[in-house]
Amino acid sequence: MKHMNSEVKEERTSNKKRIDLFLVPIVLIAAFLNLFKIWTDEYANAYYTAAVKSMLQSFHNFFYASFDPGGYVTIDKPPVVFWIQTISAKIFGFHGWSVILPQALAGIGSVLLLYVLVKRTFGVWAGRFAALAMALTPIVPAVSRTNNIDSMLVFTLLVATWMLFRAVRTAKFGWVLAAFAMIGVAFNMKMLQAYMVLPAFYVFYVVATKITWKKKISFLTTATVLMLAVSVSWAVVVDSTSADKRPYMGSSQTNSVLELAFGYNGINRLTGNTSVTGSSHKQPAQTQQQTASSETKQNSNSSADSSQSSNQRKSSSSQKMQAPGGGNQNGMFNTGNPGPFRLFQKGLSDQISWLLPFVIFSIVGLFAGVKFKGPYTTKQKESLFWLAWLLPVAIFFSIAGFFHQYYLIMLAPPIAAFAGAGAVALWSMYKQHNGWKSWLLPGGILTTAALQVYIMSPYVSSIGVAPIAGVGALGVILALVLAVRKQRKNSLTNYLGAAAMVVLLAMPAYWAMTPIIYGGNSMLPSAGPDSSSGMGGPPSTATNSKQSGFNGMQPPGSSSGNSSSNNQMQPPSGSSNGGQMPGGSSNNGQMQPPSGSSNSGEMQMPGGSSNNSQMPNSSSSKSSSSKRKSGGMNAEVNKKLLNYLTKNNTGEKYLFATTDSTSAAPYIIKTGEPVMAMGGFSGSDPILTVSKLKAMIKKGEVKYFYLSGMGKGGQSDVITWIKENSKEIPSSKWQSTSSSVQQGPSGNGALYEITLK
Question: Which residues, 6+ apart, have CB-to-CB distance to 408 below 8 Å?
Fold first, then answer.
């Protein structure tokens, strides 16, 4: 107890010291990477931005995180992050940057928190290097520059970590409760993903606290109960509310938050069963790799020439997703093949793995000589915490059936912590000539430089040979020189060690800047020379690497220099199997039409939805505009359509109805008017029935319907009924005549009117 009290006094004394001047430039770097040019992203991820627009309009929408102002359906995540975004928009006004700002600040806050967590035990230089490694981990700023949830989630979990460390130092049970309650708050940000750190929390508390086993079990049990109570608090309130008094829970199949949390946003992420078809989450094994989540629907509108599409049909019977640049990748959205080396595969390695070899050497050094039964030093205990965070999360991403590249931000804190703590520990071992341990530093530098050369090699056409050769040569030279100079203690050796650290961080720093240099993608954020594509991985042969969509392919509604009547998706460069979109069945590279559709040109979108994702006929293309309308969808609205709907509205609640959220979101953002996404995000939620729709029409709640396909998963009957009982509005009254605008991938969108007495 005396020891703990002395630690508390030491901490208070440390807090009175002046600001670490070396930390200032690190924070400025983080601020630049996270904040610079976020004001150019006008709509960010339009799906979430539309929800913020809706949540600003009433407390009912705010509490339930309603996607639309009419309170028809929610977004597919819990509300806490969007509550924060809505408050930000209320304070600063509704803008793309105001909904991004909380995540950008959270990214900066994570850098500061990691500095505080590492510095106290491993020393100030360890804290500085850990903070810098966190700031320069490419996926961290890439995600923090969007209104996706993960940056705020990581910040919240680091706050919980700080509370846990304080609970151990002070031996106060209240801090244990606070730490686990904070994980419960994180659960209400992104559900089960927050629980990925629980092994670290349990292991660390058991090992680090000097209390009886009875108290450990009692305290952890109580804290876990509190965590679970906080976790399900919002879900229980929502699920216990009558369905007719709240929005439908988006992307669930039973209108239940708990089903969404533990099924679709939980276990199904591991198994890959993420299809939302309206009937079942189960899929045949051979198509599980081709499903996609409701949060990932992207639009693409690029055509293959007829000869190329013919070759595609003959080229492959495989249903694997082709990775950009050529290599076969089973994982959707370029997440690689499951296996022990998945994090070293292209598409993932350049997001998170730049320092992984150095981290492995650091772990060996930090745990060298540790006995299983202890006793353990504070450094060893905290190293165990970061290891218990790193390993389970790395294992999950190595075997998971479905995730996105930007989820890898969950690995950034333990990697950065080990990079900082390990740099100091390995340097100390090197200087002390401590047997085999003294070889860990040059070995870590050499293998890390080698991996970085491997990571960069597919990008030679984008970044050139010089940086790749430079990192490789400098890494080898510095490692060899340090090995030779092991017996010498002078300032030159110190400079060589510092230079090696700079070399290892140089290319991660460049990669972290790519969302600023090349533009980002708010729907599927990633880092790299093709960061605007949202696909990660080696660059494609697209002529404009800054365009949104898959590997530079044009989003619907944007101007294209090429056209084709076959309406097929252009496969990634080097593809041999046609570059099939996730969520659709394989047809050797052709995009599949929605179930029941007679139009073979319609693309099937991720999640199994039909090609409803196109905007109702954009009025103009602004791909070169200084205001970037990203989010994986064309955020322009068709002014002629909007004027027609506004002029002919006779008091209906909804401006119009459409199959999914992608068509609805830009109109909600632009007007603040209710627009009904009948099938939720992907168009496949079983929300609406024909009888319910009839009742809504009779009550005068909706009369206009914009349809671009047949719909799937419980919506096909509704779409069929609409078409059979409606009057189609002549396209001349609402379609844009601009020659620079394509009418969706297949040009088949139509506006219908229904009036029932």
Answer: 139, 348, 351, 352, 397
Which amino acid appears at position 193 of this protein? Q
Contact 296, 681 (CB under 8 A): no
Look-up of token digits 């961080």 = 505
* CA distance readout (Å), 34 to 25, 28, 31, 109, 363: 14, 10, 5, 11, 29
User: Which residue reads 């705010």 in tokens?
Assistant: 62
d(CA 57, CA 214): 51
Task: Select the more confidently predicted residue: 445 or 590.
Answer: 445
SS3 state at 727 = strand
Helices (H) and strands (E) in the chain, counts: 27, 5
Q: pLDDT, tens digit, for every residue of 223-276?
A: 999 999 999 999 999 999 999 999 999 999 999 999 999 877 777 777 766 554
Higher pLDDT, 365 or 715: 365
pLDDT of residue 493: 85
* Closest to 534 measured CA to CA, from 303, 336, 334, 354: 334
Instruction: Judge contact between 305 and 554, C-beta under 8 A.
Output: no
pLDDT for res 487: 67
Helix (H, G, I), strand (E, B) or coil at 328: strand
| pLDDT tens-digit readout, 57-87 | 999 999 999 999 999 999 999 999 999 999 9
Q: Is the pLDDT of residue 537 over 70?
A: no
Q: Is 559 left (phi over 0), alpha (psi -120 to 50) or beta?
A: beta
Q: Is the pLDDT of residue 217 over 50?
A: yes
pLDDT score recorded for residue 552: 34
The answer to whether 590 and 578 are in contact (CB under 8 A) is yes
What does the pLDDT look like over 17-34, one tens digit per residue?
Answer: 678 999 999 999 999 999
The three-state secondary structure class of 737 is coil
CA atoms within 13 A on the CB side of 645: 27
Nearest to 250 by CA among 681, 683, 719: 681
> Residue 728's beta-bridge partner residues?
752
Question: Which residue carries 């069929």 as its tokens?
Answer: 720
Provide the 10 A C-beta neighbour count for residue 695: 12
How far is the C-alpha of 78 from the C-alpha of 191, rounded, in Å? 7
333 CB-near residues (< 8 Å, 6+ apart) = 292, 296, 321, 404, 405, 524, 535, 536, 582
Closest C-alpha among 737, 734, 48, 150 to residue 411:
150
Task: Report in angstroms the alpha-carbon separations of 734 from 283, 301, 572, 640.
Answer: 40, 22, 35, 5
Query: What is the pLDDT averaged over residues 698-707?
Result: 95
Tell the residue number behind the tokens 């086993």, with chain if given. 213
CB 14 within 8 A of CB 38: no
pTM: 0.82
